[in-house]
Amino acid sequence: MTTGPGPAPRFRGIRRGIGVGLTALTIGAAAFTIPTPALATRAPSSQALVVLLGDHVARRAPRADAGRIEALLARRPLTRTRTVLPLLGRAGRDGEWLHVRLPGRPNGHSGWIAAGRTRAASTPWRIRVALASRRVFVFDGGRLVRRFPAIVGKPSTPTPRGSFFVEEALRLRSWEAGAPFALATSARSDVFQEFDGGPGQIALHGTGNLPGALGTAVSHGCIRLGDRAIAWLASRIGAGVPVTIGARPVSGSPRR
């Protein structure tokens, strides 16, 4: 299975308290003035994914007796859609162990799961967030195709840097903070251990019912995008899509 352009995914509304929690999800970061080299307009053409068909236990090594990291549920907590994880590698006879990126704390951690009760997938999409320029760059099949201005975290609540992925996508109701859509990621705030009942999760979401102008650093850590930008993303980006957050900008212009 390959995720790509097509019909917009179905979303469910989110329970009270989560929408505000997504404000802490908003990927935010301080503005950085130290010059940094630009990233190229190319990226890897695809990312291998693992779809969980049942609950799993993530372990520290590719062995059944290796230390337990955490339990992995087959479905995500907000939308009840399948859990999809980026595949980092394989080990064991016939690749019976899968090295995957894991959601939640500590940011960017990974572990090993058994290959049973999983399905292989891939995605051509990648997202890069450049904190210094306060922009979001979208790649399809390795090519830069879109560039959006964004609001990022303020200095006291910066957006965490690192390699993450989209956990699930949500449609928000018109009166909820961050409407109309949110892409909840595997990143968690370095400041908020919890936020209004949520886990301090970082998301890319809209600007609905929130202050601030695009191109500024005023969020609680999440990344806020204009309505058209987040709607464009929500119709294409699904679970498992890699999200890289750093300071460096991407050079060049999008190719359509």
What would you note in describing this structure?
It is a single chain. The chain has helices at 18-25, 227-234, and strands at residues 47-52, 56-59, 68-72, 84-91, 97-101, 110-114, 118-123, 125-130, 135-140, 143-153, 162-171, 181-188, 201-205, 217-219, 223-225, 242-246. With 256 residues, it is mostly beta strands. It folds into two domains: 18-33 and 124-246, L,D-transpeptidase catalytic domain-like (Beta Barrel); 47-123, SH3 Domains (SH3 type barrels). The protein has an eight-stranded mixed barrel. It has a five-stranded antiparallel β-sheet with strand order 6-5-4-1-7, with no helix packed on it. Strand 2 (56-59) and strand 3 (68-72) form a beta hairpin. The protein is globular. The two termini are 24 Å apart.
Task: Kindly list the characteristics that best describe this protein.
single chain; 256 residues; mainly beta; L,D-transpeptidase catalytic domain-like; SH3 type barrels; 2 domains; eight-stranded mixed β-barrel; five-stranded antiparallel beta sheet; 2 helices; disordered N terminus
Compact summary:
The chain is mainly β. It has 2 helices and 16 strands. Strands 8-9-10-15-13-12-11-16 form an 8-stranded mixed barrel. A 5-stranded antiparallel sheet has the order 6-5-4-1-7, with no helix packed on it.
Shape type: globular
The SSE string, one letter per element, is HEEEEEEEEEEEEEEEHE
As for the CATH topology of the largest domain, it is L,D-transpeptidase catalytic domain-like
Amount of beta strand: 35-45%
Residue share in helix? under 10%
The neighbouring-strand order within the major sheet is 8-9-10-15-13-12-11-16
What's the overall average pLDDT, rounded? 85
Number of helices: 2
Q: Could you describe the largest sheet, including whether it forms a barrel?
A: 8 strands, mixed, barrel
CATH fourth-tier homologous superfamily of the largest domain: L,D-transpeptidase catalytic domain-like
Structural domains: how many: 2
